[in-house]
From TrEMBL:
Name this protein carries in UniProt: 3-isopropylmalate dehydratase large subunit
Species in which this protein is naturally found: Peribacillus saganii
Domain of life: Bacteria
Domain Aconitase/3-isopropylmalate dehydratase large subunit alpha/beta/alpha residues, every copy: 7-456
Binding site for [4Fe-4S] cluster: C346, C406, C409
EC class of the enzyme, as a word: lyase
Note accompanying the cofactor annotation: Binds 1 [4Fe-4S] cluster per subunit.
PANTHER family: 3-ISOPROPYLMALATE DEHYDRATASE (PTHR43822:SF9), HOMOACONITASE, MITOCHONDRIAL-RELATED (PTHR43822)
HAMAP family hit by this protein: LeuC_type1
MF terms in GO: 3-isopropylmalate dehydratase activity; 4 iron, 4 sulfur cluster binding; aconitate hydratase activity; metal ion binding
E.C. number: 4.2.1.33
């Protein structure tokens, strides 16, 4: 029997194995940020230990960083965490992309962009969206703070081998349907727990035709479907993305690496513990209306009614979600008002995402009463966007153009949504209070968020594209 890429990478990294116990895995790359690392370093100090491989550890500042006046950090917890990260990186000789660095940005944006993330690796970070790096054909997953300490000290981790899930997306996507809609559709169809205990391998024509940015968007939200990791086997798209990046292998070494990476692709006769298949043409632009990422529907449909959902539990969670969101059963998605728009986060803040949003916004104006933010995922994305004039397109339309960071994705920095107000957000979580106390988050793609900014409500992006600007019917 052949092996899947998941098993191939896993088997290569086993340092120690015993029957019916977790495996001890070697970790190739450890990303750290200010929120989940301070206690881990404290633990090392208390035990008199050092960092085993500072050269395989890379740090950035992202969650707590203000996106304007970024050196003025009023919040004491935020300031302390950022200062601790700086001190820890200095003391343990770890590379840090701090606020002065051109490499700074959201950990899951900068790692790939710098060529640190590579196929075949095991990658961890004290952050659940580490699954993003799976887009490169790596096993990448989030870990807790005590595990961060273990990896810092030993460069290894005890892990139970997960089951494998093959998720094939065949056919092609309709106009206006993006990678974000693909993953929101998957989670709404199979639920927020379908991936529990599995590593997902995403495959099929739709995935093969995606850019690296799009694959990252899909893998990023694997965790929202319950899986700790999701990956895409590497191919020419992966290799050409990596060629010439700061930490990519150079010259002959790159060619050698490609030969090795290509050998990791799943064998034709690989067996999986579970397989799912969907058709790309069934997917529409999606909007979340509830308080978990599975609670979303096509933009041209309505919020479900209690009568339409099956179990008593799901009726209960529907009602409680709608109460929090201030919405009604059966309401049309396009009738949901929007007061805030956030284009950013590790799901959708790369150059391609900003281009998509700018395409919609160009020459238009943000609707009165809407506050709209664009927050590039990294300083490099910001610079590249500015070089092609995207910042002008956004600011002329009335968007605010910010410095990189996690920003409004979660309320750990000054960018928050006020209670009771609705935000069209390109981020990945719509939990209660996520963007601020009482804030009402709607997860969407960058182009759908941009369109919502122009109309002060959700509109079907397909109607906007068709006419160049909006169809009359949309208004
Ligand atoms: C703060 C951090 C630990 C957290 C995570 O693990 O994902 C954050 O990034 C998030 O998106 O909720
Ligand atoms: S952008 Fe959001 S999801 Fe991503 S790491 Fe930051 S807080 Fe977490």
């Amino acid at each position: 029997m052949g092996k899947s890429i998941i098993e191939k990478i896993w088997d290569r990294h086993i340092v120690y194995k015993e029957d019916s116990k977790p495996d001890l895995l070697y970790i190739d790359l450890h990303y750290i940020h200010e929120v989940t690392s301070p206690q881990a370093f404290e633990g090392l100090r208390l035990k008199g230990r050092s960092v085993r491989r500072p050269d395989k550890t890379f740090a950035t500042m992202d969650h707590n960083v203000p996106t304007i006046n970024r050196y003025l950090i009023h919040d004491e917890v935020a300031r302390t965490q950022l200062e601790a990260l700086k001190k820890n990186c200095d003391e343990f000789s770890i590379s840090l992309a701090d606020l002065d660095s051109p490499d700074q940005g959201i950990v899951h944006v900068i790692g790939p962009e710098l060529g640190l993330t590579k196929p075949g690796m095991t990658i961890v970070c004290g952050d659940s969206h580490t699954s993003t790096h799976g887009a490169f054909g790596a096993i990448a997953f989030g870990i807790g703070t005590s595990e961060v300490e273990h990896v810092l000290a030993t460069q290894t981790l005890w892990q139970t081998k997960p089951k494998t899930l093959k998720l094939e997306i065949n056919g092609s996507l309709g106009r206006g349907v993006t990678a974000k809609d693909v993953i929101l559709y998957i989670i709404s169809k199979y639920g927020v727990n379908f991936g529990t205990g599995y590593i997902i391998e995403y495959c099929g024509d739709v995935i093969r035709n995606m850019s690296m940015e799009e694959r990252m968007t899909v893998c990023n939200m694997s965790i929202e479907g319950g899986a700790r990791a999701g990956l895409v086997a590497p191919d020419e798209t992966t290799y050409s993305y990596l060629l010439g990046r700061k930490y990519s292998p150079k010259g002959d070494d790159f060619e050698k690496a490609v030969t090795d990476w290509s050998s990791l692709v799943s064998d034709d006769d690989a067996e999986y513990d579970h397989c799912l298949e969907i058709d790309g043409s069934d997917i529409s632009p999606m909007v979340s209306w509830g308080t978990n990422p599975g609670m979303c529907s096509p933009v041209d449909s309505s919020i479900p009614t209690a009568g339409e959902v099956k179990t008593e539990d799901s009726k209960k969670s529907l009602r409680s979600a709608l109460q929090y969101m201030g919405l009604e059963e059966g309401m049309k998605i396009t009738d949901i008002p929007v007061q805030h728009v956030f284009i950013g986060s590790c799901t959708n803040s790369r150059l391609e995402d900003l281009r998509q949003a700018a395409d919609v916004v160009k020459g238009q104006k943000v609707s009165t009463g809407v506050r709209a933010l664009v927050v590039p995922g990294s300083q490099r994305v910001k610079l590249a966007a500015e070089e092609e004039g995207l910042d002008k397109i956004f600011t002329e339309a009335g968007f605010e153009w910010r410095e990189s960071g996690c920003s409004m994705c979660l309320s750990m920095n000054p960018d928050v949504v006020p209670p009771g107000e609705h935000c069209a957000s390109t981020s990945n979580r719509n939990f209660e209070g996520r963007q601020g106390t009482g804030a009402r988050t709607h997860l969407v793609s960058p182009s759908m968020a941009a369109a919502a900014a122009l109309f002060g409500k959700f509109v079907d992006i397909r109607q906007i594209n068709a006419a160049g600007i909006a169809d009359e019917a949309v208004k």
